[in-house]
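It would be a great kindness if you could assist me with a short task in structural biology. The matter concerns a single protein, recorded as an amino acid sequence and a row of backbone structure tokens. The record follows directly beneath this note:
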Amino acid sequence: KMKKLAAILVICVMLLTPFSAAMAMDYGDYLNSMLEFMQDMYYQDMNDEEALMAALKGMFKGLDPYSDFYDNQETQRFNENLEGTFSGIGVAIEQCPEGVLVVKVYEESPAEKAGLWEGDIILAVDSVPTAGKDTETVASEIKGPEGTTVTLTIQRQSEKMDIAIKRGIVVISPVTWRKEGDIAYICIESFNSNTGKKFGEVMDEIGRLGITKILLDLRNNPGGYVDEAVDVARRLVPRGLITRLDFKSERLGDQDYYSYLANSPYLVAVLVNGNRASAAEILAGAIQDSGKGVLVGQNTFGKGVVQNMFAVLTPEAYAKYSKQYGIGYVTEIEWLVYHGVFLSPNDILGTIKITTGHYLTRNGRQIHGVGLAPDVEVEDRTLANGIDLVQVSRLANSETLTVNDYGIDVYQAERILKAAGYFEGIPDRKLDEETQAAVKKFQSDKKIRVTGNIDTATRDKLNELLDELRKQYDPQYVKGMEILRMF
């Protein structure tokens, strides 16, 4: 979890006080000798920059599990994940024996517009085979500048084809929601730079529908930007403190975040588990401390510290500017704030992510290493034949779905059938012969007309099966709904 240091004005306020702490011992010659020793003794060749990178990674990763050093390529990938925006086609992939499998096609992405399907196997990228490559390598081959074209050779069941996709800007929304009766189920997967905006759009829609009960799913949420978690809290938590950030360095001013909501009309049940941390815990803690909601599930991870990111200079840039100004700063932001110097990309070696402080909840709790205890303890969910049922929605088709139909209701049906053991294939949104065979077996078991088509009677039975599966595999979801329905 990090404060969003991309906003220069915020950084300037935080870093106005010049560095005045006592200097540490001068390790210059010692560290240089250590780098030379490493280059000489290490069994592979290593140039000066590679040796420095290794030393910086060791230096910062040795502090705690959250601090690190990233080179410029790693920084770009990290920022893309955190920003939730990148230039590419908009798919999630995983390895498979033939190449890579498309496991998700993002809505309104270039991939969706070009006709790529979930379940497609990418055999080659621009005629270069993908078999044996890791997903990160293939992803880098697929990504590229906006407006350029990439051609994917794909296997779709028994058919092989090429699909040309024009790359564009892909915006990943970490917020999904659906209406369940008079309850809004909202899942926040992370707190990237799109979270607050997307959550606000969902809340506006909920307001138009007159919904006041929310099941907020924060399970497996790794955190992200503090500011984004605060933006979400401000839509749910009544007036008062949300969180307080306490930094060790005097150059980073402590910061209080407040909600200004006069009265929150919402009743919230928050699903939590041990895999949720940082910004997600800030939000859950604010809801719990405000008395506007209950936590349902398991004790949270307990990451109560915050990180900042700083771009750092190359040794050559450090020497140049130190000689010119008679003072040595290692970070880009120090040169900008203290001397108004704008560095070029060539002056930047990489980025340091470092733990700089801790946070307190609304009621002053420090949760690092402790976590948040749920108000209602419920055992964790499990996957049903590899299917996470919380991602599955009820079927809503009013017309009968037949062979070769493609769409979201077919996808939900395939996932329900797979979770229950009727379907062994990959859910791909297409009602093909394999899907039809699974539907027939299900219809036979439920003693309804066996056609292999998904008519309204089959739809209703599949929705009933989904409810039964949730009771078995996701008791936290069921308990959260049960609590909200009491009011």
